[in-house]
Amino acid sequence: KYESDRKYLEGDESLPRNERAVDIDLDFVQKPDNREWVETLVAALQERSDTLIKLTEQAWPFLTDSIEYDPKAVKKVLKPVAKGPLEQVLAWVDAQGESLDSDAVHDVLNEIAAKLELGMGKVAQPVRVAVTGTTVSPPINTTLQLLGKKRTGERIRQALELVGDSGEDRAGLETQR
After folding, report:
1. What's the pLDDT band for 26 if we cut at 50, 70, 90?
2. CA–CA separation, 100 vs 153, rounded Å?
3. How buried is 35 (Cβ within 10 angstroms: 0-12 exposed, 13-18 middle, 19+ buried)?
4. Orientation of helix 35-46 relative to helix 140-162, angle to 10°
5. 99: phi > 0 → left, psi -120 to 50 → alpha, else beta; which?
6. Over the stretch 112-142, which tens digit does the pLDDT of each residue have?
C-alpha cells in the first residue's frame, strides 16, 4: 500500500492520469490558515476512504482547478431536464457572498426541488456531477461549501454547456477555474 501511495502522490508517470495526484495545489493544503478547510474535507471524505489513494481520488475536485467529467455521469445525469435545476442553483450561488454556507445550500436545494416538483436527487445529482465531474461526493451541501462560490459557479456554467449534449467527445472535457 505505501509504495502505491508514494507513486500516486508523486505523480509517477507509470500510473494512468486518473491514478496520479497531479495538478493538486499542495501549497494551499499545507498553509496553516487553511487547516480548518482541510480538516472539513478529510472528515467529509474519510467515511468512504480506507486508503490514501481512495481519499485522494475523492478529494481531487476540491484540490485542483480543473476537473474531468466522467462520460458515464454526464450521459446519465446531465440531461436536458437538469438544465432548470442547474440554472436555479447557479442563480442562487451567484447571489451569495464569497463563501457558501452548508445549511443555506441544503435549504436552497430543498426549495428548488419543491418549486420544480422534483425529488431532491433530481436537483442534487446534476449539481454533484457539475461540480465534481462524477456521481459520488460528500453530501452536496458540504461539497458546495468546500468548493466555494467561485469554483461552484464556474463548474455549473461549464456543466450547463454539456447538458443535453449526447456526444461522448464533450463528456471528457476539463474545466478550468
Report:
1. low
2. 11
3. exposed
4. 90
5. beta
6. 999 999 999 999 999 999 999 999 889 999 9
What is the residue type of 89?
A: V
Number of Cβ within 10 Å of residue 91's Cβ equals 13
- Residues near 110 by beta carbon (within 8 Å), at least 6 away in sequence: 120
The Cα 130–Cα 74 span in angstroms is 8
Q: Can you tell me which residue has the cell 468512504?
A: 48
Instruction: Give the torsion through C-alpha atoms of 114, 109, 95, 45, to 10 deg.
Output: 180
Q: Cβ(107)–Cβ(151) under 8 Å?
A: no
Is 165 in contact with 153 (CB distance < 8 Å)? no
Q: Do 123 and 109 form a contact (C-beta atoms < 8 A)? A: yes
Lowest mean pLDDT across 28-42, 58-72, 87-101, 134-148: 28-42
Position 171 scores a pLDDT of: 39
Could you tell me if 62 and 145 are in contact, meaning their C-beta atoms sit under 8 angstroms apart?
A: no
Residue 134 near residue 106 (C-beta atoms within 8 A): no
SS3 for 174? Answer: strand
Rounded Cα distance, 10 and 144, in Å = 28
